[in-house]
Amino acid sequence: MNRIPILKLHNILLISIQTDLHDVIIQALQEDILTEISRTGAKGALIDISALDIVDSFMARTLRDCGMMASMLGAKVVITGIQPAVAITLVDLGLDLSGITTACDIDTGFEYLHKEAGIPDFK
Amino acid sequence: MMMQNIEIKEESDIVVSRRMVREIAQEMGFGIVDQTKLATATSELARNIYRYAQTGVVVVEKETDPDGIRILFEDKGPGIEDTEQAMEEGFSTTPGSLGLGLIGAKRLVDEMTIDSTVGVGTTVMIFKHLP
Fold first, then answer.
1. Number of folded domains that form chain B
2. How does DSSP classify residue A121?
3. Shortest CA distance to A33 belongs to which of A62, A2, A1?
4. C-alpha distances in Å from residue A105, one per residue of A16, A48, A80, B110
5. CATH number of residue B100's parent domain
6. Could you tell me if residue A85 is inside a domain?
7. Model's pTM, two decimal places?
8. pLDDT over 60 at A15, yes or no
9. How far apart are CA B2 and CA B61, in angstroms?
10. ipTM for the whole complex
11. Alpha helix (H) ranges present in chain A?
12. pLDDT digits (tens, 9 = 90+) for A33-54
C-alpha cells in the first residue's frame, strides 16, 4: 500500500496529497500524522489537498477527525487548497465541517498556523 | 444508449468507479462541478456496495431522451429494511459513520430511487440531466 509522505519543517508537519485517496490510504495517513505529532512534538500540521478532485463524506470525516485528534495532542491542523468544485459538492452533500480549519493556499495556511495557532514564525 | 459496467469487488474499485464516472461525464459535456458531484455520489454509493454487500456492479448509461447520465448501483447484499429510514439524515448502521451516504448522494443528483428487498439485494439509481 502507498503511504503519503509526511515532511517536517521546524515544528510543522507538511503533507501534500497527490494521489487519489483510497479509504485505507487516508486511514493510514490519519494514523501516521498523529504518530508523527506525538513523536516530534510538532505544533501544527498542514495538509494540502489541491490535487484532489474529489472529497467524499468518508474522506472529509477522516480529515475532520484527524484535526480533532491532533488537537488532543496539542497540535493544530489546517487543510489547504480545496478546489472550488469540491467545496460546492461538500456543502451540497450536507457535511458539517465546522471542526475543520481551512485556508485557500499553503501560504495562508502557514500564516494561520503562525498567527492563530501561535506557532513561532521561522521565516 | 451506451453502457459501461464496473464491478465492485475490492475497496480500490470505489476509486475506479468514480474515476470512470467522471471520465464519462466529462466526455458527455458535464461541467467540472457536475462531474465532481457525479463522481462524489458514485463514491458514496459504490462504498455502500462494498461496505454492506461486499460485491456488486455499477452500470453507467448515457441517456438521450432526455439527455443525461443514469448510474445504477446493484448488489445482492442484505438489502435495506426501511428505505425511508435509510434516507434520513444521520441514519447509519455503521458506527462512526456520518450517515450521509444515501441522502448526500441524493442531494448531488436530479433523481434518485432505491429498490431494495431484504435478503435479495439493492439497486440504487441516480440520474443527472445534461444542462
1. 1
2. P
3. A62
4. 12, 8, 5, 32
5. 3.30.565.10
6. yes
7. 0.91
8. yes
9. 6
10. 0.89
11. 23-40, 57-72, 84-93, 106-115
12. 999 999 999 999 999 999 999 9
Range of the domain at A65: 7-115
- Does any domain span residue A122? no
More confident residue, B121 or B93: B121
Residues A117 and A14: their CA atoms lie apart, in Å, by 16
| CATH number, domain containing residue A24 | 3.30.750.24
Q: Exposed, middle or buried, A122 (CB in 10 Å: 0-12/13-18/19+)?
A: exposed
Contact B108, B42 (CB under 8 A): no
> Is A120 part of any domain?
no
* Best A92, A95, A100 residue to mutate vs chain B (most B CBs within 10 Å): A92
The tens digit of pLDDT for each residue in B24-82 reads 999 999 999 999 999 999 999 999 999 989 999 999 999 998 899 999 999 998 888 87
Domain count, chain A: 1
Answer whether residue A2 is part of any domain: no
B7 contact partners, CB below 8 Å, separation of at least 6? B13, B55, B56, B57, B58
Which residues of chain B have a CB within 8 Å of the CB of A24?
Answer: 11
Q: How far is A86 from chain B (nearest CA, A)?
A: 7
**Residues of chain B above pLDDT 70, percent:** 90
Cell of A39: 513523536
Bridge partners, residue B67, by sequence:
B64
Structural domain range at position B54: 2-129
Residues of B with Cβ-Cβ distance to A58 under 8 angstroms: 43, 47
Give CA–CA dist B57/B72, Å, rounded.
8
Cβ count within 10 A of residue B48: 24
